DNA sequence: GTTGAGCGTT
């Protein structure tokens, strides 16, 4: 994506370990999917912390928390996939001060000295033509969404139940549904409860359309003062492991080859080269079809 | 009457 530095030796070592775990892959084939952010490996070496950026399209509006990339930066494209038409970010150092623009170069946004977590960020739009994030359903639809739609010849744009972690114990089904209707039509929203009818603090949400799902999956929201996480359920994973790669294979080659299965969000080939790589998709169904 | 990582059926 947009790396300012190279992976540390420590990080590369970790990747190596995971290659041994899943090393039965044939050339050019994918083996073993893993869901992100959990389980065996890929736990932070140091700079790989899970930083979220609180973003809204206009001050005081609904906020969404976008995850940074491995280097703690944010790509313009991932901002744009969330807020279509956004060209950058700004923040207000103090309540009565002017907006300050976030450093941006080569399609990559860099955190202010105080860090991403110090502020709430507002999207910049070219020549002040503000767009709300719910407007991108038809005429303002983002390029990435259009691409996904054209790629989804069969079933790779269906919605699935998303798991919602970290809910306040007081949140009801109706409140959960209402919370997500900000992002699209909600087909189902359910808080899991125990025998006594008490919330277990998590639930499931199903959107009517894929675009709405894209808006929140793998992101965080603020509900009742708590950060709730929206993820694909365990059995769905978005990342595949590529074994026995040829050295001359570039990230672009991988993108091109695996691009036919769906929108790719990340391609990572550890350097120095070890014959392995990872491709992460936006949609887990892409992984399903590859591994099928 | 409490809790705070996780993975759901009925």
From TrEMBL:
Its main location: nucleus. The keyword Transcription applies. This is RRM domain-containing protein. Residues 160-235, 238-292 form the RRM domain. InterPro entries: Nucleotide-bd_a/b_plait_sf, RBD_domain_sf, RRM_dom, TDP-43_N. GO terms for cellular component: chromatin; nucleoplasm. PROSITE patterns: RRM (PS50102). The keyword Repeat applies. It comes from the Eukaryota. Keywords: mRNA processing, mRNA splicing, Nucleus, Repeat, RNA-binding, Transcription, Transcription regulation. It comes from Meganyctiphanes norvegica. SUPFAM superfamilies: RNA-binding domain, RBD. It is found in: Nucleus. Gene3D superfamilies: 3.30.70.330. SMART domains: RRM. One of its GO terms (biological process) is RNA splicing. Residues 8-17, 129-152 have a biased composition (Basic and acidic residues). Residues 1-50, 129-154 are annotated as: Disordered. GO terms for molecular function: RNA binding. CDD domains: NTD_TDP-43. Transmembrane segments: none annotated. Residues 18-27, 36-45 have a biased composition (Acidic residues).
